[in-house]
Amino acid sequence: MPHRSHNGNTARKQVLILGGGFAGVGAARRLKKADVDVTLVDARDYHSFQPMLYQLATGLVDTAVVAHSLRDLFEDQPNVTVHQAHASAIALDAHTVTFEDMDPVRFDYLVLALGAVVEFFGVEGADRHAFPLYTIEDAVRLRNHLMTSWENADTHQALVEDGALNVVVVGGGPTGIETAGAVAELFHGDFEEDFRGLDVDHARIILVEAGPELFPMFASDIRAYAQEALEERGVEVMLGEIVEKVEPTRVTLKSGKVLPAHTLVWGAGLRANPIVESLGIELQRGKRIAVEPELTLEGHPEVFVVGDVAWITDTKTDQVLPQLGSVALQAGAHAGESIARLVEGKDCEPFAYHDKGTMAAIGRGSAVVQLHGGRTIKGNAAWLAWGAVHLTLLSAGEDRAKAMIDWTWAGFTHDRPGRIHVDAGAGRDTP
Q: Is 178 tagged catalytic?
């Protein structure tokens, strides 16, 4: 049965976008004026702003800042329909995607923007006991766990000696470093005031990195600055160490060291959404899909692969592009633009990534920026630049306003209003 468009015209091309992250949203927005009908499907009904999940996890911002309704994002784009469903199989030759909880959808053009899932590299116990930080649910779960750990230690002091306040963060990239810095500020700022019966100096924050340095993608001066900034905030940096086993209250390293810690935050790796393994094509490292210069799938010019699921080689540098929001957003926009061109009978153009720099925030007044060409910025200037860039990337004006309010309040008061524990399954409170 033909897929009928919004206005009943079956002649319009049907574009199916799988994934409502940066790449999927970028593709859909570029199709606003195209003569197509767009169906965007995501397992969640909201867009997540992943670069700020660590701020949600540490109470600096509220959920509404980093999550925005997908339907609201496209309320002024009548050619887009949003569905919440889980894709189960992709039949490339039949131009059809089936779902666990929705009727199959046929497409003329497909944008694969399914994102990634956390990769634990087979570390024993990590899938059960570690706290990844890739989704809104991950961030809220970590925030609740940190609150509970301190609440329990406040009423059962013996837990402090057992490591209840200790946090191990795995991964010396942006996620790990930003999280370690934010946790340190949460502990030495708000929690020190909230739990006056506990000595915050007993809380260890340990960053474990398998490589010899932090921030391997950055210049040497940034790597040194990042480690110094973390250590000034009380973070212990362990380089050349690999996690071997994760238990609820212990972390064992391959060197034989055992760290008493009731919290392990995993920021060490991602792999593409498992559905790509069903496509029957060769996958690159991290199980990502290699794409043509136009971001299309080899042998399927009607299929575009973008975002964390894609293995994109920069045509200018011949380097594989990292799994960053900026890459996903630009690649998604290119896919949307390319489909619009194809519908008009024009050819696609190769994707050209515009590197605007890489950045990470270590804490209040401390960040790092590496611009295209190698120039670096550190400290307060980099922190202000980080804030400005992330405000522009937020999905809507109200999200930017909420973030500004939270950041400004925290800047003047050092207070994190989001540090509350909400347990949706707790039921009604009793007096």
A: yes
